[in-house]
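User: Here's a structure from my thesis project, written as C-alpha cells. My advisor, Dr. K., wants to see whether a designed sequence matches the one we expressed. Can you design one independently, without my sequence as a hint?
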C-alpha cells in the first residue's frame, strides 16, 4: 500500500473463529488494523477430525511462518488401504512424500483440525481480540460503517464485517437475495466421531466399501484415539434433514443405515456413545455469484466451501484469507475496490478447486453392488501393483489448486499491534 502499512487502520469484525477467520486476523492485524473475532462457541473450538494441507495451502502456511509448527503436529498417516469384510488389504495407495508433484489420497501434511486451530490462535491472539460465546445475530450498514448486533444484546460499529462463519453462514444468508440456495449438492452424506484405538489400528487409513453406496473409513491419529467415518450416497429428504436434528437422533439414523455393514461396524457404532463429539453433515459446495455487499464480505467456507472431497477445503480457507487480507491492506481507504479485487483474484482458484469434485467419480468410488466393489478393488490393486498412483503423483506438474499463483504477502509478518476493545 502506497501510504505504508497501518496508514488507514480499519475496525474489522470477523464473525467466526475457525481457520479462515484466524488466518484473516493474523494478516489484517499485521496490516495495522484493529480486529475483533467473535466465536459463538464458549471456548476455542480446537476439535474436529483430521484435515490436510495441499498445494497453495502449504505455501500460505509457510508465508505465515507457521510451517514448522504444523510439521511438529503432523499425523502419522502413511497411506490409504482398501479392505474387505475380513479386514484383508486389497490395495494400498501410499502418500507422496517426494516433495514434488501432487499429493495422493493422503497428503504429506495431515494434521488434526484442533491442532491447526491452536497454532493459528497462538499466532494471532496477542494482537487480535477474541470474544467467545458470542455471535453476530444481525447487522445494519451504510456508506460509512456497519453496525453489528450481538447475541448478548450489545452492538458495535465497524468499518468492515467479515462472515467467516462456515458452510451454514448466517452472514451469507443476510447478504444474498431471499430464497437463494447457495448449495451445490452431490448426494453424499458423512458422519464422523472418535473411538478408543486398539492394537490392530495402524497408521494406514482403512477404507471399507459396503453395497448400497456406503463406505466406512478408519484412521488413527494418536496412540489412544481412532477416527471413524460413515459415508453414504442418498438423496432423500430424511438424509438432508438429519444433520439439523439432535445428536442422539443423528446417531440412531447412522446406526440404522450401517447396522448390517459388517467388518468392524459393531465396534464403531458402540463407540458413538462415548465419543467426545459426533458430527454429521451433507457434502455440499457453496457457490455464489458474489462474496460481498457493501461493507460485508464472506471468507472461507461461508464464501466458497469446496467440500471434503476437493481435498482443498482447509487450504482454500487459508488462501482466501491471504487474498482478502492482502486486498484490504493495500486499499484500506477504498473498500469497494479491495473487495472487488478479492473476488477477481480468488475466483479462478476457487473455480479450480471446486471443479476437482466430480459427482460421477465420487459415485464410482461408492459402488451400489458387491460385484462393482470387487471390480473397483481389483482395478485399484492392479494400478497399485503397476505403481500408477505413485508415478502419477510424482510426475504431475500441479497439485489440486492448479497453476494459480498465491499473491504477494498481505503484510510483513513481523508487524503487530496492540489488541483492541470490541466495538472500538
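Assistant: Designed independently from the structure alone:
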Amino acid at each position: 500500500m502506497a501510504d505504508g502499512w497501518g496508514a488507514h487502520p480499519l475496525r474489522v469484525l470477523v464473525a467466526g473463529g475457525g481457520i479462515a477467520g484466524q488466518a484473516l486476523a493474523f494478516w489484517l492485524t499485521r496490516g495495522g488494523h484493529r480486529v475483533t473475532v467473535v466465536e459463538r462457541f464458549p471456548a476455542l473450538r480446537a476439535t474436529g477430525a483430521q484435515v490436510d494441507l495441499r498445494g497453495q495451502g502449504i505455501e500460505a502456511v509457510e508465508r505465515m511462518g507457521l510451517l514448522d509448527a504444523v510439521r511438529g503436529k503432523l499425523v502419522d498417516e502413511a497411506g490409504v488401504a482398501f479392505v474387505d469384510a475380513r479386514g484383508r488389504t486389497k490395495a494400498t495407495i501410499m502418500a507422496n512424500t517426494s516433495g514434488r508433484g501432487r499429493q495422493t489420497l493422503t497428503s504429506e501434511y495431515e494434521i488434526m483440525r484442533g491442532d491447526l486451530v491452536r497454532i493459528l490462535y497462538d499466532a494471532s491472539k496477542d494482537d487480535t481480540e477474541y470474544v467467545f460465546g458470542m455471535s453476530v445475530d444481525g447487522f445494519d450498514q451504510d456508506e460509512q460503517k456497519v453496525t453489528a448486533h450481538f447475541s448478548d444484546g450489545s452492538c458495535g460499529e465497524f468499518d468492515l464485517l467479515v462472515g467467516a462463519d462456515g458452510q451454514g453462514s448466517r452472514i451469507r444468508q443476510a447478504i444474498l437475495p431471499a430464497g437463494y440456495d447457495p448449495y451445490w449438492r452431490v448426494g453424499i452424506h458423512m458422519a464422523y466421531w472418535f473411538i478408543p484405538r486398539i492394537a490392530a489400528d495402524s497408521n494406514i487409513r482403512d477404507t471399507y466399501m459396503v453395497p448400497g453406496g456406503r463406505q466406512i473409513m478408519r484412521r488413527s491419529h494418536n496412540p489412544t484415539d481412532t477416527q471413524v467415518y460413515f459415508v453414504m450416497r442418498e438423496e432423500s429428504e430424511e438424509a438432508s434433514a438429519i444433520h439439523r436434528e439432535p445428536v442422539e437422533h443423528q446417531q440412531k439414523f447412522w446406526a440404522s443405515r450401517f447396522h448390517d455393514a459388517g467388518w468392524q461396524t459393531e465396534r464403531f457404532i458402540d463407540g458413538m456413545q462415548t465419543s467426545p463429539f459426533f458430527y454429521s453433515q451433507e457434502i455440499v459446495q457453496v457457490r455464489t455469484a458474489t462474496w460481498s455487499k457493501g461493507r460485508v464480505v464472506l471468507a472461507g467456507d461461508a464464501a466458497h466451501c469446496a467440500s471434503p472431497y476437493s481435498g482443498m477445503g482447509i487450504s482454500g480457507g487459508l488462501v482466501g484469507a491471504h487474498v482478502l487480507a492482502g486486498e484490504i491492506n493495500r486499499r484500506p481507504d477504498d473498500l469497494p475496490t479491495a473487495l472487488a479485487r478479492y473476488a477477481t483474484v480468488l475466483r479462478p482458484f476457487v473455480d479450480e478447486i471446486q471443479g476437482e469434485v466430480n459427482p460421477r467419480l465420487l459415485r464410482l468410488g461408492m459402488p451400489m453392488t458387491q460385484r462393482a466393489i470387487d471390480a473397483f478393488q481389483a482395478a485399484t490393486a492392479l494400478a497399485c501393483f503397476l505403481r500408477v498412483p505413485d508415478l502419477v503423483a510424482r510426475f504431475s506438474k500441479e497439485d489440486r489448486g492448479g497453476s494459480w499463483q498465491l499473491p504477494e504477502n498481505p503484510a510483513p509478518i513481523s508487524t503487530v499491534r496492540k489488541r483492541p476493545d470490541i466495538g472500538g
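When you compare it with your expressed construct, this may help: The first helix runs from residue 19 to 30.
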